[in-house]
Specification:
heterodimer; A: alpha/beta; Rossmann fold; Heat Shock Protein 90; B: Rossmann fold; 5-stranded parallel β-sheet; 5 helices
């Protein structure tokens, strides 16, 4: 930006400026002055024409007259703000009152140019506006760059942390598997403890990585959609093979034709697998895990309930706090990072849904997750409804 | 039994390779190892292994993905069973369930660290198969 060094007479090249003014002489003189200064200029006599063009190009600056027939300057600003929030808008008016200036600024204009103005005044104000536009763009670029560096840093650090732990755990796992019968009892016991502790550490890094990705907004894809039935089936198949799930019965009741929910497979998978994992972990031998879903007006509600140890009432409000774990005699030997439900809550929030915990100590827990229906689906349903309606009226 | 089956391990962590090599050798496999994708591809061409264990995230970040795609273009490696191993996707339960096939033409995905019993069972299953189940469309087998 500084390298372009825009001065009064020379403006940065290739800056596209749009002029919307119903006065032809005004349009022509603006075009002449700004073209001479090295800008590309497009002029429009009507607000609608200018707005149409704004849907196709991304100019640096918009000069707009306030008083115009049909669509006036304020209306143009309102629409343009939504189309391109970064566009710098300069208002031109013959009614140079403080009130109009304030109103234009409030509506989102950056500067104000009273008529009549000299070529030099126009260049100066356009110049300032373009500088402002470049500043906005530069700030955005730097912010994106910073976010990208941070994101990579987190991924890389977690990989660096995991690699040595994996190597150590792999040695122990293979040693335990191959040499168990030759090892003294104490060694077997200590290796087992080391494996557990390393597993906890790895799970913690994994969860921490997921959490920082969610917080940075680079985990959940809100534009994707996911079929809950497939995910639930896959995860149940996967998790019921766990040793802790051996003595449990599973029941899954997902109605056919359940609409896809908003969110990508990875986020939804993480959510569902954490919840089913908890229902298994905090269960009791001979207990059950049941998964149901209903589709309603407010999206799809997935209920994952268990007949496990339940949660003391006073602990429920704290379950979404990072690293919080219910400390009772029954939970002390169950491994966990204290981040699982935090992750679930953040994913659901990111996707615009809600999560509710119902539990009775000693009886079991039910987690209800409400997820918005995928937009495509919602649109299709709306389309179908409209079609049906128009069919009826015929 | 699979005494003479050849397994190639491609992973940049020598300690990890050491542990897995020992496990597989004890079970009667001939094991060779490579520590990067290029070396691995070269060894795969000359060795013609019965199975490849491939880490996706080596020094060059996603080297394994490219190595695997490259290997699938070589006629004699097109049908070689490949188990992709990684710690990066271990936090994504979906990868534990069914590895995506289209972009990752592997037979199986296993998270690191590997469960020895599970690894041996899968290696035995994949090397015993008379014809490899990898096809363009269904590269990802379900793990169950």
């Amino acid at each position: 930006m500084a390298s372009q060094n825009p001065t009064d007479s020379t403006l940065p090249e290739k800056n596209l400026i749009l002029v919307i003014d119903d006065d032809e002489i005004m349009r022509l003189s603006c075009e002449q002055i700004l073209c001479k200064a090295g800008c590309r200029v497009e002029t429009f006599g009507k607000g609608h024409d200018g707005i149409r063009r704004l849907r196709e190009v991304r100019p640096s600056l918009l000069l707009v007259d306030i008083k115009m027939p049909e669509l006036d300057g304020f209306e143009v600003i309102n629409i343009v703000r939504k189309l391109d929030p970064d566009l710098v808008i300069v208002v031109i008016t013959g009614y140079a009152t403080i009130e109009t200036a304030v109103d234009a600024m409030k509506a989102g204009a950056y500067d104000f140019l009273p008529k009549p103005f000299t070529p030099s005044e126009l260049r100066m104000i356009v110049n300032r506006g373009i500088e402002r536009w470049h500043l906005i763009k530069e700030t955005q670029r730097l912010r994106r760059e910073k976010e990208e560096v941070e994101r990579r840093f987190i991924t890389l650090v977690s990989h660096q942390l995991k690699t040595p732990l994996i190597a150590v755990k792999q040695y122990l796992d293979v040693m335990f598997f191959s040499l168990q019968s030759q090892l003294p009892e104490k060694a077997v016991e200590w290796i087992t403890r080391s494996q557990v502790r390393l597993g906890e550490m790895l799970a913690l890094i994994q969860d921490w990585l997921a959490l920082s990705k969610i917080d940075r907004g680079c985990y959940c894809d809100r534009t994707a959609n996911t079929n809950l039935s497939t995910i639930v089936d896959d995860i149940i198949q996967d998790q019921r093979q766990l040793p802790s799930a051996a003595a449990l019965t599973f029941s899954v009741a997902l109605p056919p034709g359940l609409p896809p929910v908003k969110g990508d497979r990875v986020s939804i998978g993480m959510l569902v697998s954490n919840l089913i994992g908890n229902a298994i972990k905090y269960n009791r031998p001979g207990g059950s895990v049941s998964i149901r879903a209903i589709s309603g007006e407010k999206g799809v509600t997935l209920e994952i309930s268990d007949t496990g140890i339940g949660i003391p009432e006073e602990c429920i409000p704290q379950l979404f706090q990072e690293f919080y774990r219910v400390q009772t005699k029954q939970t002390q030997d169950i491994p966990g990072t204290g981040l699982g439900l935090v992750i679930c809550n953040r994913i659901v929030t990111e996707l615009g849904g809600s999560i509710e915990i119902r539990s009775r100590e000693g009886q079991g827990t039910a987690i209800l997750v409400n997820l918005p229906v995928a937009e495509l689906q919602a649109e299709a349903q709306l389309g179908a409804a409209l079609e049906a309606k128009s069919g009826e009226s015929k | 039994m699979s005494e003479s089956k050849k397994v190639l391990i491609i992973d940049d962590d020598r300690d990890f390779v050491n542990a897995i090599e020992s496990l597989l050798q004890d079970s009667g496999y001939q094991v060779r190892s490579a520590f990067n994708g290029r070396e691995g591809l070269h060894l795969a061409k000359t060795l013609r292994p019965d199975l490849i264990l491939l880490d996706v995230m080596m020094t060059e970040r996603t080297e394994g993905f490219f190595m695997l795609q490259e290997a699938r273009r070589i006629p004699e490696l097109r049908q070689t069973p490949v188990i992709v191993i990684s710690s990066i996707y271990a936090d994504q339960p979906i990868f534990r369930v069914s590895p995506e096939a289209g972009w990752l033409p592997a037979n199986l995905f296993l998270p690191k660290p590997l469960d020895p019993a599970r690894l041996l069972a899968e290696v035995r299953r994949l090397t015993d198969a008379t014809c490899s189940p990898v096809t363009q469309a269904a590269g990802g087998r379900r793990e169950s």
